[in-house]
Write a structure and sequence with these properties.
Helices cover 77% and strands 2% of the residues. Helix 4 (62-84) runs antiparallel to helix 6. The chain has one domain (7-244). The two termini are 24 Å apart. The protein has helices at residues 7-20, 22-44, 52-59, 62-84, 87-93, 97-130, 141-168, 171-188, 193-201, 220-244; strands spanning 207-208, 211-212. The protein is an all-alpha fold and 247 residues long. The longest helix is centred in the middle third of the chain and has 34 residues, at 97-130.
């Protein structure tokens, strides 16, 4: 009986596949330019702020737009294998399908979180360099919390998108469904009264620090918990379907 492939080998394989895709580099470049560029631009047009937290939150605004690139990157990473048929080779090498999906999700979400962390620090540096704040902009307290929330939010968005890509097995379908969930529905549902507003607050909206981006939604840890629930639910559905369906 053959031994299972070591998890480290599966992770290395998924990393190699991720970085070998041109779409990964295009999405990453878009993410860097939009999040980082907007951050420095926002800081340059905001010469002063009342507090360090408000100065940093302004620089994070680019993440609201940039996370659409995260959606695209993660959906393509998952759905692309099904579209090309290369998933057959992946599952021959890693027969435990849930293990393969977990490794792919970990690599994609980890890469997104790491890049987001670097960009969040760049935005903090922009606020510290270009915005005058009484007492400066130290990397602690509310500032550190906002940066960490941004990293977590982007990572959860990546997990949600991988799940959508694996469920729908279509790049176009996954990206469309993702945009609808994180932006389209939260924007439209409040038009239908109080019930719509309640449903909008239960959607996995994009976040800028602790706040929802351009739409109604819960803030802070509660909002992240909502996004985490959607990400976990979508991923579990993808895992179940992956086991039960033919490739």
């Amino acid at each position: 009986m053959s031994r299972p492939v070591p998890l480290t080998a599966v992770l290395r394989s998924e990393w190699t596949k991720l970085v070998s895709l041109r779409s990964t580099w295009w999405a990453a470049a878009t993410y860097v330019l939009v999040a980082g560029g907007f951050g420095w631009l926002a800081a340059s047009t905001n010469p002063s702020a009342d507090s360090a937290s408000s100065a940093v939150r302004i620089t994070l605004i680019g993440f609201g737009f940039a996370q659409f690139a995260v959606l695209a990157l993660a959906v393509v990473a998952a759905a692309g294998e099904f579209a090309s048929g290369s998933v057959l080779a992946s599952l021959v090498a890693v027969p435990r399908r849930v293990r393969w999906l977990a490794a792919k999700t970990g690599v994609v979400a980890g890469a997104v979180a790491a890049l987001t962390g670097v960009l969040a620090l760049a935005c903090w540096l922009a606020a510290r360099t270009l915005t005058a704040v009484p007492g400066g902009v130290p990397l602690d307290g509310g500032v550190g919390r906002d940066l960490l929330l941004q990293v977590v939010a982007a990572g959860l968005t990546a997990v949600l998108a991988v799940g959508l890509g694996a469920v729908l097995r279509s790049t176009a379908g996954g990206v469309s469904a993702g945009v609808g969930l994180v932006f389209g529905l939260p924007l439209l549902l409040p038009l239908f009264g109080s019930a719509g507003e309640w449903l909008a607050e239960a959607m996995p909206v994009l976040r800028v620090g602790a706040d929802p981006f351009l739409v109604a939604g819960t803030t802070g840890a509660v909002g992240l918990a909502v996004t985490a629930a959607w990400a976990a639910g979508t991923w579990l559905l993808a895992a179940v379907l992956l086991v039960r369906r033919d490739v």
